[in-house]
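INTERNAL AUDIT FORM
Audit reference: QA-55
Scope: verify that the stored structure record matches its stored sequence.
Auditor: D.O.
Record contents follow.
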Amino acid sequence: MKSKYFALFIIGLASFSVSFAAVRLPALFGDHMVLQQNADAPFWGWSEPNATITISCSWDQELHITKADRWAKWKTSIKTPPAGGPFTITISERNTIILHHVMVGEVWLCSGQSNMEWTLGSGIDNKESEIANANHPLIHHIRIPKGSSDYPQENIEAGWEVCSPESVAGFSAVAYFFARELTEQLHIPVGLIHTSWGGSAAEAWTPKNIIEADPEYSQWRTLYPETYQWPYQPGSTYNAMIYPLAPYKIAGALWYQGESNTGNALVYRRLFPDMIKSWRDLWGYEFPFYYVQIAPFNYGRPLQGALVQEAQRLTLQASPSTGMAVTTDIGNVQDIHPKNKQDVGKRLALWALAKNYHENIPYSGPLYKEIAREGNKIKVFFDHMEGGLELKDTKPDLYKIAGDNRQFVEAKVEVEKDGLLLSSELIPDPVAVRYAFTNVAEGNLYNKTGLPATPFRSDDWPVIYNNVSIKSVYDPAQQGFIISMEGDGSDKIVYSLDGNEPGLNSTIYEGPFVVKEKTNITAKGILQNQLSENSTTKDVLLSKATYRPLTVLTPSSEKYSKGGNYTLINGQKGNINNVNDPEWQGWEGDNMEVVVDLGVSQKAKKISIEFLQNQNAWVFLPSQVIISTSTNNRNFTDVLKQAEPTTNNRVPQTKNYTADINVNVRFVRIKAVNIGTCPPWHQGAGSKALILADEIMVE
């Protein structure tokens, strides 16, 4: 029996030895791979220590020989031919690996967050026809799996795919449309190495030692809460999704990211170029790096998107061999994932065709160059005008100028042969210009080839964020709200009562005051005679129903009743971006039915109530809203009966239901029918759906 176990042990050792000695390749080297043409392409892998590895390629007659080091790693480079294929590559040691259908062409690394990760199958413009017509066998794509690591990794698990209607749904849409443009213009294979992760921050794509060595970068801990569900830990995706890919020879890199760095946009000015440099250092050469400027989107904090756009524009100057595709005209301010990926890919391809492949074509929209005073006007000069400038549509709010007081106003715009001339009667001595410099600005300035200008500001004045809190307390004696304000480090507070943005010369807050009607209050802080970029708005919703007795006939959810019995009639408006705001009152899976007693029968002209929809939080509009009135709380007359179809719409929004009447009313009853459970197409299908209601107004 002992000799039997000894024999099995010897067989096991032999099997282990053969397995250990087997030559292995990184996953990037496989069937359908694309190698960079006319290059010394690195090949590497693992084998037995000091083993001799031979490589033969069907495009030449050479036998390439290299040797593993004592750590069992080997590396060599092989001269690739001009674009073509398919070829076969054979790698041998004690075992043999044959790579089939190898193409030689142009290889591009494609990375970033969700807008790069977004696939054709995720939903793009003309999705069905784009997928059905994706017969492009020259395009090959490899999807690097999502991963994070504290330490650099040596390999990944993935495989190359050939583009076809059957495979393309899983391709990065931006990368695919970039490659399609290249193959149609150059008629050569294009390989796409797609490595992206939605929601990821630039810190995650940058080596950890760079982040930790910089005092500003190392403040990342204050930006991302522990509950943040996407990669932000320094170096985490760099280690797992970038490091294992080097030194695979690439023509360049494509990048679409920045949305997750709106919280530290000014730091992104340096961080983004440093990230680019770290990748180039890893590969050992200065490859072209083309990126997408983030599209307009309704971010919560003023200018945070504009400041990232600015950081991306400045990177053109800070980092050599970079290019930027502008998307101000093809975004969606209500959707952070615009569906027009075709033009994004095409605009990236213009940079590559012009810079990498020396096509004589325009590749950039107008880029801000400088300003100059001309009397009481200010002139803006641009690079890449390509025959001149054009304004499409009339959007005066995009163009602003300021004097030494740094308060910007809308400007009159004149298109001249060599630039733009801006002026305003309110600014006799202009010193600064801004174009489309807001989170949601959709540009209208183009050059003659139809490429859009990037947003810009000529100044680099500090951006002030001073918060102002506005409190309102109902005073029954005065039948109105007492308004008080506090500034966060502000020298003073200015405000308006008509909803307009206050300026330096607006009313200064000097102490509490009373409002006795429906009012929209907007306030800003002022620090060192400069207005804060962020403003605070508060709607005081005073009506006949305010703080009147309310009966809840169907109990609301305990979780969504934090505002107490007066939530629906306290004159306070719920936050559209916060389902947990106590100003919302909610019913989970149940219908809503409440009655307000106005105290006495009185003439009413309008009754309204507002509901929230935030399908990402399981909150849907009611399927039906019924508003009824009565003078005796027994006999009710319906004055509004409105059905609401349930549609797939993930953008948070509110909807107001209003009954226009002219009758005597004492009791107001409002019923809202819950859809019950989340619909089949929703990620919470079958779970209880929520109704969240806001202020009841009787006017």
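Auditor finding: record pair retrieved intact. The first helix runs from residue 2 to 21.
Action required: none
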